[in-house]
Amino acid sequence: MTGFDRFVMVDWSGGSDTGPRPRRDAIWMAEAGHAPVYLRNRGLAEAALDERIETALAAGDRLLIGFDFPFGYPRGFAAAVTGRAEPLALWDWLEARIEDAPRANNRFDLAARINRDIGAGRGPFWANALKRDIPGLARTKAGYVNPFADRRQVEEQARGAFTCWQLAGAGAVGSQVLMGLPVLARLRRRFAGHVAVWPFEPLDRAVAFVEIWPSLLAQLVRRRTRDGDIRDAVQVRVMADMLCGLAPARLAAMLAVDAPEEGWIFGLGHEAELEAAMPSDTGLKPPPLRNDCFALPPGVDWTPVDAALAMLRERLHVVTGVEEVPLMQASGRVLAEDLVARRSNPPQPNTAVDGYGFAGDAVGRGDQLLPLVAGRSAAGVPFAGSVPAGHALRVLTGAGLPEGVDTVVLDEDCAVADGQVAFRGPVKRGANTRKAGEDVMAGDVALAAGRVLTPADLALAAAVGLSVLPVRERLQVGVLSTGDELVEPGETARDGQIFDANRPMLLSMVARFGFEAVDLGRVEDDRQALRTTLDGAAGRVHLILTSGGASAGDEDHVSALLRESGALQEWRIALKPGRPLALGVWDGVPVFGLPGNPVAAFVCALIFARPAMAVLAGAGWQAPQGFDLPAAFAKRKKPGRREYLRARMREGRAEVFPSEGSGRVSGLSWADGLVELGDGAAEIAPGDPVRFYPFGAFGLG
Q1: In 3D, which of 205, 166, 220, 197 has the Cα closest to residue 266?
Q2: How many Cβ atoms sit within 10 Å of the Cβ of residue 451?
Q3: What sign has the CA pseudo-torsion 552, 553, 559, 560?
Q4: Interval 522-580: pLDDT, tens
Q5: N or C: which end of the chain has fewer CB within 10 A?
Q6: Quick check: pTM over 0.85?
Q7: Helices (H), ranges, 496-609
């Protein structure tokens, strides 16, 4: 049981909290198909790992997590410390004794204690990096005596690997081991029965912890590293994507290792094969959808709208890669990672008005008269000195407050003459000022991942010092029309033919949603021609929208082809207009087969395809926001399916189009929204409340 659904790689750190700005020698984590995540300390990393494991278990997925530090020590060490030659017992022993906080930990003191207990104070650990001396822990290897082997067997074979006894200095991993194993011990205990540690335990559980060494793929990482990239972030991304691309049988073979006490480095001796498993595309690409992602539960026939939406939300995931773009080009893009403020906004205390600044504690009630300090503070030209207590300084809007100023009185409330300023107290301390970081503090998340960036967001990003933003690639949505009866607008339509209204409608909708609309043209009722078109589209787009051919008739070739591929799911939605919705995956690309009638295609695109596109694009599920209006119509509705009526708001009431026919395209132009009628029976009279969704709620504003 060695097949895995998810792969997460972690570049660990044995040091202290590295601060809010992403940097090397910190903790970096990447899941296959996702951007690397910066984690400034081990507490945040442990919480992130906890969340990844819970998510995988809830989804029923198998998860492999790789950590870039040794899982064991040279033979004999575990028994000398714990009395048992079991590496996992040593994990628990260390977890009970390591003290770890973001800015301080006891790793050097614990190493010294071990040295004194089992090595007469001369080993096995060395390299004290603290300013204070620690009895039993040498700063260098001089006079060092190791009662154990310097290296594990695997490190003798891995050229360039460092010994786990060295706690500090270039390339040292000893501190990573001491600070990492306790975290793994806690995770293993927290998810008892679900975690197996390789190669100490059989990999017959949902989660596997595996030791990795990214230097095995140093050349590949170097080729994938661009100017400005942080190498640690690149290497966890490369390792995760590489494992995702490795055939399960080959992964199983590489995990077939016997190293019961010291542990092993995954992939050692298989470097060329691992590199070959890495996708050639340098862009970060999430894994494709599975062919069964649209499968309905057994016995389901008619699918209620809410159930269909819930299944889409559960089974879809992001399919777009990540790229960095200049701030000025990021409007409308989906943010791929949390944006952490590099600078506080405001960066320092400043004045909100033109006036005079002073120390608020220096004034009281009644008339006040303060001598003025020569000079002034203006935006961009701050006052260089300090303001003594009982004195005031001229300040202009946006100016930084110098030392000695925490309160400002308005120009309009002051009289100035002879080097003095007069005003009437009391003035509340802090009046007319802005605190440093009162908007956003440096290190805070200014904007959350998944947000579609607005002009206001760009202003905020600029204000906190960000000029390049990580965004998702634009979702590429292909639109394809099928059917012998269709002709292009402007051509001559013969008897029995109609103009293709769906393709221009759907292409425009996709563009209005904020995605890249790709015109795949029109295909006649020819199965091989349709196959060729779908094959070509799968390499160009992230999602395909078709209209027509989604039912089960002789000429419904979309359904037939998807059925042949084993990826068709025909959802008969309890919906009017709409009902048939063909869903499938063609060469990893989801296909939405919309009804052929324009009104039904329009409604299904809004209700089902639009929120699905948002998920695929990385923006998360987006439900439309509606509101209740009094009805300006009467209607009796039967139970059993949900209905959407073309509607518009006039004088605060919801009017509906006089015909409900799916072919009445004019009703779409007439309307500015939809009225939703629930699944049950209803008898609506004028004035009754009905739920109205303006088209703007779907992104068509």
Answers
A1: 197
A2: 16
A3: positive
A4: 888 777 888 888 888 887 899 999 887 544 444 455 666 666 655 556 677 888 887 67
A5: C
A6: no
A7: 502-513, 527-538, 557-564, 598-604
